[in-house]
Design a protein that fits this description.
Layout lengths: L3 E4 L4 E4 L7 E6 L10 H19 L3 E6 L6 H10 L3 H18 L15 H13 L3 E4 L2 E4 L15 H7 L14 E6 L14 E3 L1 H13 L3 E7 L3 H16 L4 E7 L2 E3 L2 E2 L10 H7 L2 H9 L7 E3 L1 H29 L13 H22 L4 H22 L6 H18 L18 H15 L3 H13 L2 E6 L2 E6 L4
Parallel strand pairs: 3-4, 3-9, 9-10, 11-13
Antiparallel strand pairs: 1-2, 5-6, 6-7, 7-8, 11-12, 14-15
Helix pairs in contact: 2-3, 4-6, 6-7, 9-10, 10-12, 10-13, 11-12, 11-13, 12-13, 14-15
Zinc ion (ZN) binds next to loops.
Length: 488
């Protein structure tokens, strides 16, 4: 089966066809950095990380872009409250994001554009919209003329006239139509701002994503992520601006993740209904949080509670114990600690295990191909562990079929490469070549970080340093493995 992704236009799944063969452009709406991120925010980033890893596994070259909204009325208000610059507030929270993203094993994006570094791009984008008649300046503000684009409302399934009846007309509004939204806002007094053809001002929120996404990924690209709450108005507006400015299609698939609910309402900073991530991380391993977020279809709503997290932790432990049992059995089989099957002789339970692994592999990938259903894919891993336990019980650890066990282990490694649920990959379960010195382990970890960031020169340099310490890094399907260099 080919990879199917939900498509908002047809309201159904359809086969994924990249805009450019072999490549994928992925833009993810990032944080407005007035505060530290909470788990609800990180859900979107973990989901898109899983999607990116899967596409890379399938051989696509993914370019992953995630913005930071580092200037915004809330950031300005926070800065005034603390009597510091908006930049100080933004940088502090960007740092907090990176710390959380590292803990949750989110691969670094290839670009993290910030609004304050792209104001000329944004101004140029707004100018194009004025030229095309889709936007107008009004006393230092610039608005998008919603009625000028017939496609408006289609993405989120809204009717323009229904919307209009719900819109409040603000006193002193400079809009032609209450549905119009700001592309550029006038900055008065001490409010941060940039010079523009319309006077001193700052970008509206929606325009930045159109300007930065197309700047890094081209006018028309494949995937756009963000929480379901961004569908309207943010993504509807992004789509309208982009199509009007470029005259091209904008995004092929929107990856809206479901919302994270805490109690009866969604986790939201503005409502004060959220759990700070550092508090959560001090109580639960990051790997459990990541597992919790991926153990469902990313588009479905997630209900967060301590009970649900405990369930996730129990499930995660079951997987780890299973992986450890498997690794131990494999080591015992390899080392001849127990009698292994003579090659060429078919062991019946071993053949059954190999067949079961094959079946699980097909179902794991079918789930991932089904609009990235990581929850169903995780279900197959639980099934796989159960198959192994049955096998080990049936053989009582005798006559182990190393080939069949290795096939299961490799599948687990491939799955982990996609889901990123084991912090050290399957090396964590390695019952192999004795203790790796801390220094070597740390260098190997840094090398993996460098590789994940495609920093090949640094990765090579770290490999050299590891080698100087007498170890060799082997990149296996189950992650990097350290082997002592023999004879040095
Ligand atoms: Zn956005």
């Amino acid at each position: 089966m080919s990879l199917q992704i939900y498509d908002h236009r047809s309201r159904s799944k359809r086969p994924f066809v990249p805009v450019e063969p072999g490549k994928v452009g992925l833009y993810v709406c990032g944080l407005t950095v007035q505060d530290v991120p909470h788990l609800g925010h990180m859900f979107a980033f973990v989901a898109c990380d899983m999607i990116r890893r899967y596409l890379e596994y399938r051989g696509f070259e993914v370019t992953h872009v995630q913005n930071f909204t580092d200037i915004d009325d809330k950031i300005i208000a926070r800065a005034q409250q603390e009597n510091v610059s908006a930049e100080t507030v933004a940088q502090r929270n960007i740092d907090a994001f990176h710390t959380a993203a590292d803990a949750l094993r989110i691969l670094p994006a290839h670009h993290y554009p910030r609004v304050t570094e792209h104001v000329p791009d944004i101004v140029a984008f707004v100018e194009r919209l004025i030229e095309s008649g889709n936007a107008y300046a009004a006393e230092g503000d610039v608005y998008f003329r919603v009625r000028s684009w017939p496609g408006y409302g289609r993405l989120s399934g809204r009717d323009l006239d229904d919307m209009r009846s719900g819109v409040r007309v603000e006193v002193g509004d400079r809009k032609e139509d209450p549905l119009d939204f700001a592309l550029w806002k006038r900055s008065d007094g001490d409010t941060p701002g940039w010079e523009s053809p319309w006077g001193r001002g700052r970008p509206g929120w929606h325009i930045e994503c159109s300007a930065m996404a197309t700047r890094y990924l081209g006018n028309h690209f494949d995937l756009h992520g963000g929480g379901r709450d961004l569908l309207f108005p943010h993504h509807e507006n992004e789509l309208a601006q982009s199509c009007c400015a470029t005259g091209e299609a904008f995004v092929n698939h929107w990856l809206h993740n479901g919302l994270l609910y805490l109690g009866k309402s969604k986790m939201s900073k503005s409502d004060g209904n959220f759990l700070a991530l550092d508090t959560l991380l001090s109580r639960h391993p990051a790997a459990v949080l990541r597992f919790f977020l991926l153990n469902a279809h990313f588009r479905s709503q997630l209900d967060f509670s301590e009970d649900r997290l405990r369930e996730a932790a129990a499930g995660y432990d079951r997987l780890r114990r299973g992986a450890q049992n498997l690794s131990n059995a494999l080591a015992a089989g390899r080392n001849g600690g127990t009698r292994t099957v003579v090659p060429g002789l078919v062991s019946l339970p071993g053949a059954a295990l190999a067949e079961a692994a094959d079946h699980r592999r097909r179902r794991f990938f079918a789930s991932m191909d089904d609009d990235f259903n990581s929850g169903a894919a995780v279900g197959e891993l639980f099934g796989l562990i159960k198959d192994v336990n049955h096998y080990l019980a049936a053989t009582d650890g005798r006559g182990l079929d190393v080939e069949a066990l290795q096939a299961v282990f490799d599948l687990l490694g491939e799955a982990d490469g996609i889901l990123g649920i084991f912090p050290d990959g399957l090396a964590e379960f390695d019952a192999g070549p004795g203790d790796v010195p801390d220094e070597v382990g740390e260098l190997a970890r840094l090398r993996q970080v460098a590789r994940d960031g495609r920093n090949w020169p640094e990765a090579d340099e770290l490999r050299g340093r590891i080698r100087d310490l007498g170890w060799d890094v082997e990149d296996t399907p189950s992650g990097p493995r350290l082997n002592p260099i023999v004879g040095t």
